[in-house]
Amino acid sequence: MRVGLWGLAAVFLGAFAAHFLLQDRGYVLINFLGYVVQMSVPGLLLALAAAYAGVRALLALWRAPRRLGEVVAERRVRRAGQKLTRGLIHMAEGDWSRGERLLAQSLRGTDAPLINYLLAARAAQLQGSDGRRDDWLKLAYEEMPEAETAVLLTQAELQLEHQEFERALATLSSIQEAHPNHPVALALVAKIYQALEDWDQLIALLPQLGEARLDPRELESLSAAALEVYVGRQGMTHDDLERVWGQLPARLRKTPRLIAIYALALSALGRGTEAEKEVRAALKRDWDENLVLAYGRIHASDAEKQLRRAEEWLKAHAEDGALLLTVARLCMALELWGKARSYLESSLAMSPRTDAYALYGRLLNQFGEESNAALAFSMGLGLVTGAVDELPALDAPGTPIARDEAESVGGGPTEAESGANPATR
Question: Which residues are CB-neighbours of 13 under 8 A, at least 6 positions away?
Fold first, then answer.
């Protein structure tokens, strides 16, 4: 529409100008350095137009090589991008050889080759070629020395995936010399120590793990594994426990799983009342199975009060299998065998667990129900092996009233007979 309007305006303007020029075409005289040029005004206009067109043509010819280079470069970049995309597709589909080849070919046209080198290194490793992987990483560093940290992190990650733990640690040490608290390097170092089961190094790393670039669940799992090993060592004192616990990042000290480990360690050191308070306070903030189960294993000074509190929680969590197991443990500590059995059976009915079956089997043995006890142990093992459905059902238990009556006349197992005293919960 706009072009049509401009064309129409040009026609009218040309017709108007031609009307006057035909009446009087004018006269132009140019005298320069003894040269005289005579022409009409239309001739001058045509000469100027021709000169303008000639200058434009010369400029176009002068710029042609550069424009041609730009077009070729643009085409090369576009083709490199297409090959990079196809290479990524082949890698995602598992065709790593073809993916690596396309990534290598796309290097010719890309202005950012780092990603090609790193992806090619991964493709080479997926084909089992560690040597070619390292060659790609070396080329990446030579191409972009300023990306040394990124290249080394990729190398360490690939070495970790290939279980080259010692080599990965050596690679990461180069990063930590320049960046001691690099979050990704810390995460990789922690994973390597766990894989090597180098618990001393992992425990020493605990204060820094808060800075590591780890998924919260993975961070909790790593920290819990190290803390469990530490608190399980012989000769650990309360001061040692408090020192390690105090060095943990604040957010880790608030996780239920680590609080449970810490509280059980306190209880093992003879500070059961302190541990009970710790777990109880944590349960007010977050009702968690780890804390619930830990509460039943704590040896507090007032076991009866501890049991009453746990039974109070049942009012709000009546169908919590872990809480029922905890209450059963506390009942066994107080030699309330009938109640313990009832709670255990309810717990197993709601959420079968290996530890609940093991406790139930020990209790049944003390009641003289050897066949049922053996079956309970087998069912606990079946939960691990997945063979529970192949086992027969437990015999129907006696009524709680009958059991309690038996205990009241001395028929129930004593604490010494059952092995269910507080020290063996």
Answer: none
- Residues with pLDDT less than 70, the chain: 1, 3, 6-7, 9-27, 41, 44, 68-77, 80, 109, 111, 386-425
Query: Contact 327/293 with Cβ under 8 angstroms?
Result: no
Range of the domain at 342: 302-425
Rounded Cα–Cα distance for residues 423 and 425 (Å) = 6
Query: Is residue 363 assigned to a domain?
Result: yes
In a domain, 420, yes or no: yes
> Is 394 within the bounds of a domain?
yes
CA distance 24 to 30: 19
Tell me the pTM: 0.70
Write the CB contacts of 230 (distance below 8 Å, at least 6 apart in sequence). 199, 203, 236, 244
- The tens digit of pLDDT for each residue in 205-262 reads 988 888 889 888 999 999 999 999 999 888 899 999 999 999 998 889 999 999 999 9
Instruction: Answer yes or no: are the C-beta atoms of 329 and 358 closer than 8 Å.
Output: no
Q: How confident is the model at residue 88, as a pLDDT? A: 78
